[in-house]
Specification:
With 186 residues, this protein is α/β, with parallel strands linked by helices. The protein has helices at 13-23, 43-49, 65-78, 95-100, 121-128, 163-185; strands at residues 2-8, 29-36, 54-56, 83-86, 105-109, 132-139, 149-156. It starts with a strand and ends with a helix. The model has no long low-confidence stretch (mean pLDDT 96).
Length: 186
């Protein structure tokens, strides 16, 4: 059984879906570590409820990205992590982790990349007036949402769509697609 680490910065709904899929034996894996850059994030409570160890840091406590990534790397090695899953982690991954985990870091993004990379992809899609958007699972590289695509699913944007309704549809799609992709990769 492979050990995975999940990186998250917020509420952790994708983290929870992954943990649920593992606990139900849908995914044959073990979340051996949650890495979180926000000490107040709700995802930490989710991890504690499932007895999953967390490594929490504040980037401001380090002079460089390389320094905090070295600390993360020590934690990942100590837990024998083989795959890193980004689930709402709001930092770019740097060379330290990319070199240690080549093609072993994946991310979920709420658009059909290469359209609408970066923050607020759902809002960007609404503002652009496109008729379709979706979810992309991709490998992480040195760019922002530029790594090779693993899977994509699209959804229609309705005429009266609001930011909230589209976010709900996107999250539902993420919660279905991400566990499927993780299962296939493992």
């Amino acid at each position: 059984m492979k050990n995975i680490a999940v990186f998250a910065s917020g509420s952790g709904s994708n983290f929870q879906v992954i943990v649920d899929a593992i606990e139900s034996k849908e995914i044959q894996s073990n979340v051996s570590l949650l890495v979180c850059d926000k000490p107040e994030a709700y995802v930490l409570e989710r991890a504690a409820k499932h007895h999953i160890p967390s490594y929490v840091f504040s980037a401001k406590q380090f002079q460089t990205k390389a320094q905090y990534e070295q600390e993360i790397l020590k934690e990942l090695k100590a837990k024998n992590v083989e795959l890193i899953i980004l689930a709402g982690y709001m930092r770019l991954i740097g060379d330290t982790l990319l070199q240690a985990f080549p093609q072993k870091i994946i991310n979920v993004h709420p658009s059909l990349l290469p359209e609408f990379p970066g923050k607020d992809a759902i809002g960007q899609a609404l503002e652009a007036g496109v008729q379709k958007t979706g979810v992309t699972i991709h490998y992480v590289d040195e760019g922002m949402d530029t790594g090779p695509v693993i899977a994509q699913r699209e959804i229609d944007i309705e005429k009266n769509e609001t930011l909230e309704s589209l976010q709900t549809k996107i999250h539902a799609l993420e919660h279905k697609l991400y566990p499927e992709v993780i299962k296939a990769l493992l």
